[in-house]
Amino acid sequence: MKRLVTILILGISCIYANSQVTFDLDLQKPGASISPDMYGVFFEDINFGADGGLYAELVKNRSFEFDQPFTGWTPFGDVTVKSEKPCFDRNPNYIQMNESGLRRGTGLENEGFRKIGYKQNAAYNFSFYARSNDGGEKKFRIELVSSKEEVVGKGEILVSGNEWKKYSVSLKSAVTDAKGKLRVVLETRGVVDVDHISMFPAETWKNRENGLRKDLVEALYDLQPKVFRFPGGCIIEGNTLETRYQWKNSVGPVENRPLNENRWNYTFKHRFFPDYYQTYGLGFFEFFQLCEDLGAEPLPVVSCGLACQFESTECVEVHDLEPYIQDAIDLIEFANGPVTSKWGKVRAEMGHPEPFNMKYIAIGNEQWGEGYVERLVKFMEVFREKYPEIKIIGSSGPFSDGKDFDYLWPKMKELKVDLVDEHYYKSPDWFLKNAARYDSYDRSGPKVFAGEYAGHHETRDNNMIAAIAEAAFMTGLERNADIVRLATYAPLFAHVDAWQWKPDLIWFDNLNVVRTPNYHVQQMYARNSGTKVLPLKMNGGNITGQDGLYASSSLDETSSEIIVKVANTSPDVKEIKININGLKNPVLNNRVEITVLHSTVPEAVNTLEKPNNVAPVHTFVDAGANGFTIKAQSNAFYVCRLKLK
Ligand code: AHR
């Protein structure tokens, strides 16, 4: 019996092996400056990220411009689609409703984006444009309908006159329901034309009209991203050049921004979304405004004249590129130009006379080959002459290595782009093995922008295995902050009922948000960046996986704080003694603030039901005269901050 107990105790202490290691941090040798824009996000309208997501419009196909004009709508009675004498020339379709007094009535219901989410007692701003064909007054009944088919909010609109006019009414929901719908009924006999049927929650981010979903922006705001890449990704390229993202279509009055397809509607046969389009209601003005709200540098990506190279070989001839280059040049004027300039005036008319101070532009997304280089050269000639202060980002292709990557990097050096965009969607294991990726990069060429990356676990879940691997890898970005200047996880958003791609940083349904473990890692980096790299070693070497440990350190010169980041990917608890060479000033309160993201379950995820299953926890350890010690759990990421007095 005694032997059995001994064996058991030995077994347990084996599982919880508590090995000790020492890190040496040198406060006296601060290294490279960390870019103040280092950690950010990449937004693309994928997974219903804009329409049906961040953009708070609740009505799908509000302008009847989808290829099948009644997509999203269930008309009843006499409702037809017309386009003669339209209200909006660039979205010409509208509906004609003809009520002849039959009991079935005339109207239509909208299903929203995988239904409509209503909150009890919340107000909803409904509006449409209409004209009464005989000019006489016509009454409309507007109803919020629950998933139980009950009317849970209603209002009335009286239309009169035979000219197009805007009408609106505020409705209140009596219930909370994530799967409601909207009903619009013409009650008076006669013919009425109706267009742009829209409904927003009254409460949007900063309560703006044509606003953004408050809870989703709050998730971004809490992340504190310092750079914001948009609007793609593949959608800037288009599957055809005609369907590429053209920023000029995304500004000006929202009703007249022409609809475009969303290329993610049919990219994956097994995730087919024929009802996925881009209204551009969330357009470039709204993007710039959001960046300003978040305190993030805007980083727009523009088409370089190549349609998505995965899908097509369509391209603009190099000698015909001028309109594409002009579009990119005009974008700078829209963002930064004086209100007296053509595009600065458009910005001012939209409500922002002050410039947005755009500093970065990416020419092309995941482009490759000679065709890309030839086109980039043309853009660069004009940019360098007209806007030499703008930092230009070139592509290294879609993959982290290989033929295209090896061809493009030297070309980017030759062209002297400012930053090279690298993308890696890879296994967690790849991220661990690549923590030293940038240690040996050439320091004399362009800088690196890790523009799209995510750990793809075999389940493709946003789980702790992936999150901790990303955290470990990012210690390598930080250690190499002299060359790695920007980093943005991808993709950003996904609707739980309408995603095409996973993993994604933030999940949501029509009412709720889930911040993934990967989100927390990004947030821990963005909030704890520091301004200078500090050397941190274990047995004289960078900490890049020895004993399953990864670590980096920085100094925040503004707040006089030392920041140490540690990812423990080993199966063991590690007692880590962090010796700080040069710690002359005593540590404030003699304590170190610790933020830890940890789970005993490597596959742990956050869900709608358990959104905080994995979340950072705050604690303290004592600081000694020469440093401090942490007990790092397995499968955990630590940020330690000590403030010098
Ligand atoms: O982030 C999803 C897609 O991945 C992006 O659109 C594209 O750039 C990459 O292939």
Please give the radius of gyration in angstroms. Answer: 27 Å
- As residue ranges, the low-confidence spans are 1-16
Share of residues in helices:
10-25%
Strand content: 25-35%
Commentary on this structure:
Residues 1-16 have low confidence and may be disordered. Helix 7 (369-386) links the parallel strand 18 (360-363) and strand 19 (391-395). Helix 5 (322-336) packs across helix 6, helix 7 (369-386) packs parallel to helix 8 and helix 10 (464-479) runs parallel beside helix 11. By secondary structure, this protein is an alpha/beta fold. Residues 44, 46, 232-234, 365-366, 398, 452, 490-491, 501 line the site of alpha-L-arabinofuranose.
What descriptors fit this protein?
19% helix; six-stranded antiparallel sheet; alpha/beta; eight-stranded parallel beta barrel; binds alpha-L-arabinofuranose; single chain; 11 helices; 645 residues
